[in-house]
Structures are given as structure tokens and as C-alpha cells.
Design brief:
This protein is mainly beta. The chain has a 4-stranded antiparallel β-sheet. It is elongated and about 65 Å long. The model has no long low-confidence stretch (mean pLDDT about 90).
Length: about 100
């Protein structure tokens, strides 16, 4: 079994005239103020083999992954009105299987 944890954070700064974009327009809603994402996964290789000093993963990997994403739009609610609150979150659970032959 093996696992990974990843965290990322991004912050953007724009010129003040970006506040004048039409609220709800593609120009206003596409500007991210901050974004962050966290990912954790678990991968199981039931047929892994020890080969000298390294481990071969074998012919099958089964994995499960959780992804959390959060985004804030530059200008907040004023930029996304009347459609949104200016921020949003997303949660995903992904499963995978890799077969090697």
C-alpha cells in the first residue's frame, strides 16, 4: 500500500480596473482571487513483489482518491452577482484500477 497527500494554494492580484467588469460576465467570473486544493489517496498493489532492493508493483493497482477544491473570485459577490456568492467548493471521490499485461 502507498499513499500521497498534496496541498496547493494560489493567490492572484489584478489591476483595480478589473473591479469594473460587468458583474456576472465571463470577464468578472473568470478572475480567481485565491484557490486551494487538497488531495489524498490510497493505492493498493495486491501482487507487489520485492525484487532485490526495490518493490515491483505487480500487475494490478487499485486506488481511491479524495479531492477538495476551494475558489474565491476576485471581487467576491459583487463580481458574480446575481448568480453566485463569489466563492465555491468542490468535493470529489475517485476510484481507479490499473491492470498491466
Amino acid at each position: 500500500m502507498r499513499s500521497n497527500f498534496v496541498y496547493s494554494y494560489a493567490w492572484q492580484q489584478y489591476p483595480s480596473y478589473a473591479q469594473l467588469f460587468v458583474p456576472g460576465s465571463a470577464s468578472a467570473t473568470s478572475l480567481n482571487s485565491t484557490m486551494q486544493q487538497g488531495i489524498v489517496n490510497l493505492i493498493w498493489s495486491p501482487f507487489a513483489e520485492l525484487r532485490g532492493n526495490s518493490v515491483g508493483t505487480g500487475w494490478l493497482d487499485v486506488g481511491l482518491e479524495y479531492v477538495y477544491s476551494q475558489r474565491d473570485v476576485y471581487g467576491g459577490t459583487a463580481a458574480t452577482a446575481p448568480v453566485s456568492t463569489g466563492s465555491g467548493t468542490a468535493n470529489r471521490i475517485l476510484g481507479s484500477a490499473t491492470v498491466r499485461f
